[in-house]
Amino acid sequence: MLNFTFKNQTEILFGKGQLSEVSSRLPEQAKVLFLYGGGSIKKNGIYDKVTTALEGADVIEFQGVEPNPEFETLMKAVNVARENDVNFILAVGGGSVIDGAKFVAAAVNFEGDPWDILVKGAAFKNPLPIGAVLTLPATGSESNGNSVVNRKETSQKRPFSSETVQPVFAVLDPEFTYSLPPRQISNGVVDAFVHVIEQYLTYPVNAPLQDRFAEGILQTLIQEGPKALATPEDYDVRANVMWSATMALNGLIGKGVPQDWGTHMIGHELTALHGLDHAATLAIVLPSLMFVQRDKKQEKTLQLGERVFGIKEDDKEKAIDLTIKAVQDFFETMKVKTRLSDYDIEKSAIDGLIDNLERNGLTALGEHGDIDLAKAREILTLAA
Ligand code: NZQ
Ligand code: ZN
């Protein structure tokens, strides 16, 4: 096992009615920026519940953080936060709103152009504390320090990461996910699944506990994901999906093991250039990446096939092919398509994707740093 340090500062408030705990978690004399998305929370009643939970606090609202949160929009929120001397951000929504809150938190006291936080890894001081009310289980953003921001103007989608912007608390009420459209249920399950894969499907380092954690989450998602589509108002199903998605990317399962993240990095370019949903990009890239990296990932792919998908096949190459197919079939079962052509993206678009990877310095991806631009091209070509 590799060396590691582990600390997760987010207090999880899980279950029905836990929103009522929020007021007791706010700082003294809180001046809260209530940040949310396109308005789904107004339709499903969460907005009213949050407003009630915040009664008595000084609250400024900012509506309109879009999926794949947009830099320009977030800069408007930064100005609102600055003008109103906000000292806390409550993010209510999915990964986009929570990621957006992290960027706002980091940018508020940043002198200079906050875009540098994303493209140059510029250091920032005194970020605002954040609380999250999660409405879409998928990204794990509610209990990690990662944030991904999109900028249409430059066709870039860039991440930054800092434990200083990790939410101090996160409300996970499974009932808040009942109103999700099927497409977002699917996206969430696929995204969480791939988060586990990025931290599991590398090479063995004798870390059987991390492996079992990862396999447990994958099995739970495979079992509960289709049920979430079939019986959307089943509390237990929603609860299990929600907790799986949080555990998939709260840092725990990735400790002491190598990590890949190549699928995510290539996928981000598909969103930046073609506007695809994050999960769709992963469903396209992962099976092909598994194929191209099959020798490097041989042992863990065989373990995944046998332990998670129950594949029993002595011929190793056949077993790997069956495992890749099982992963692809799972995405299709979750109604997320797995080929570029399913999204009307032509082979000729691959040049632009490769150029963007190069522009963003993403030329040595994967757990061995061996996914160069030629390999990325091979992966995308296979996914055409
Ligand atoms: O904008 P609103 O009106 O809230 O609607 C949203 C949005 O249209 C809707 N939605 C959310 N909760 C709902 C709901 N609709 C009805 N009922 C509810 N309860 O769903 C749509 C998608 O929301 P979004 O937040 O964009 O989805 P998701 O949670 O999948 O987040 C995706 C973003 O997270 C980033 C992705 O790159 C992408 O930008 N990621 C963040 C990560 C992290 N912080 O660790 C890791 C991930 O790999 C990922 O990169
Ligand atoms: Zn993801």
Automatic annotation (TrEMBL):
<dbReference type="InterPro" id="IPR044731">
    <property type="entry name" value="BDH-like"/>
</dbReference>
<dbReference type="Pfam" id="PF25137">
    <property type="entry name" value="ADH_Fe_C"/>
</dbReference>
<dbReference type="InterPro" id="IPR001670">
    <property type="entry name" value="ADH_Fe/GldA"/>
</dbReference>
<keyword id="KW-0560">Oxidoreductase</keyword>
<feature type="domain" description="Fe-containing alcohol dehydrogenase-like C-terminal">
    <location>
        <begin position="188"/>
        <end position="355"/>
    </location>
</feature>
<dbReference type="Pfam" id="PF00465">
    <property type="entry name" value="Fe-ADH"/>
</dbReference>
<protein>
    <submittedName>
        <fullName>NADH-dependent alcohol dehydrogenase</fullName>
    </submittedName>
</protein>
<dbReference type="InterPro" id="IPR056798">
    <property type="entry name" value="ADH_Fe_C"/>
</dbReference>
<feature type="domain" description="Alcohol dehydrogenase iron-type/glycerol dehydrogenase GldA">
    <location>
        <begin position="10"/>
        <end position="174"/>
    </location>
</feature>
<dbReference type="InterPro" id="IPR018211">
    <property type="entry name" value="ADH_Fe_CS"/>
</dbReference>
